[in-house]
Amino acid sequence: MPMNTTTEPALAWQEAALCAQAGPEFFFPAPGSSTREAKRLCGACEGRQACLEYALANDERFGVWGGLSEKERLKLRRESG
Ligand code: SF4
């Protein structure tokens, strides 16, 4: 989840980031707790695809990005080679 906003065009999607208005505990839940609420927010976020691509490109290991948990992103990376 993006913590700050920027005016760089490549990161413009962060300005639409719904999680910028939500607390970080949403996106970095305690181990074993549910990521359902964070994913629900991602589902309504305009920047979701860009967010996910950013997380994959930057090897973000922790928290929910683009609607996927770190485990789900790992799985996606493995599957996509
Ligand atoms: S997709 Fe989710 S994690 Fe990414 S910017 Fe939107 S709300 Fe935040």
Automatic annotation (TrEMBL):
The residues forming the signal peptide are: none
| Name of the protein described by the UniProt record | Transcriptional regulator WhiB
Q: Cofactor: bound how, per the entry note?
A: Binds 1 [4Fe-4S] cluster per subunit. Following nitrosylation of the [4Fe-4S] cluster binds 1 [4Fe-8(NO)] cluster per subunit.
Family statement: Belongs to the WhiB family.
Q: Does the keyword DNA-binding apply?
A: yes
Task of the protein: Acts as a transcriptional regulator. Probably redox-responsive. The apo- but not holo-form probably binds DNA.
Which Pfam family would be a valid example here?
Whib
Which of this chain's residues are annotated to bind [4Fe-4S] cluster? 19, 42, 45, 51
Which co-factor is required?
Answer: [4Fe-4S] cluster
Compartment(s) of residence: Cytoplasm
PTM section of the record: Upon Fe-S cluster removal intramolecular disulfide bonds are formed. The Fe-S cluster can be nitrosylated by nitric oxide (NO).
Alphabetical UniProt keywords: 4Fe-4S, Cytoplasm, Disulfide bond, DNA-binding, Iron, Iron-sulfur, Metal-binding, Transcription, Transcription regulation
- In this chain the 4Fe-4S Wbl-type domain maps to 18-75
